[in-house]
Amino acid sequence: MTDVLLAVGTRKGLFLARRRGTVWEFGDPLFTAQAVHSVAVDTRRPTPRLLVGADSAHWGPSVLHSDDLGATWHEPGRPAVRFGEDTGASLERVWQLQPAGPGAPGVVYAGTEPGALFRSEDGGETFELVRGLWEHPTRARWEPGGGGLGLHTILTDPRDEGSITVAVSTGGVYRSGDGGRSWAPSNTGVEAVFLPDRFPEFGQCVHKIARDAADPDRLYLQNHWGVYRSDDAGANWTPAAGGLPSTFGFPVAAHPRRGGVAYLFPLNADTDRVPAGRRCRVYRTEDAGASWAPLSDGLPEADHHGPVLRDALCTDDADPAGIYFGNRNGEVFAGSEEGGHWRQLAAHLPDVLCVRAAVVG
Description:
This protein is mostly beta strands.
């Protein structure tokens, strides 16, 4: 089997695991006094670069990187992500770190709280604020969701490096076709159940978006109540929740190669954020959201109360693909056979905030 690196960001540090053959090995925790809200594995380089958005209660948020799979780390003397004095804002959290496509090998994006997009051209060592989104006339009317006002999703188009899609809780979906100079809301069809106007231009509480592997114009969206699909790169959205026990949840992940295949972890409700029906189940679609089926072989059968956050469900890029998730109980599971069978890799970790995996062997 292919060697895979699994990075698990928790409320109290980063845990790295390696799969060599069929055996998983966890190393000692890193950054143990810090909450790790975002992790990226940049495989565009000869040696993968790990990027971590960590938050020290004493020193504040920072972005660190490692070029030797976590053996050593570099933190810049000057914060890599920072708001200029003219913005009147200060960085509270790095919600997302996202390498761009192969056509822009040095570009890495960061999504932050307060809701903003930053761009790096040196692999994540320094970042600049994307002014076009920050100065958008609707931004002043974005409101924080339950977890804050965070830009948590960044998608680049593999066909066009200037095409960028982001999601903000609770600003909604925004798209740029010119590398971030200009932006437009892109929420047609997505419902905001908590607003008087249930289908506004912006203001939806989007929880996560994923891009289909075979059709770059197809996107999957997990909303605050609602699962949607777009077949036109986000211009329009339609419900895609057939067979789900609940349309509330946080993460969505697309298969790395198979078109029409995506994964969700439904929760009971916004006021009862535990697994739907108190059952630990990942749901998979193989027809682009027309129907979803539970994947439970190897997962706990008893009542379960561990929700999965928006960045705590992912796939690797192996063949066949591995599926991974961590929950707020501190459990981490790996799904072989593309989610057909699960095994528990870890238990009793701190609250799992994000999970990322990639082939590194």
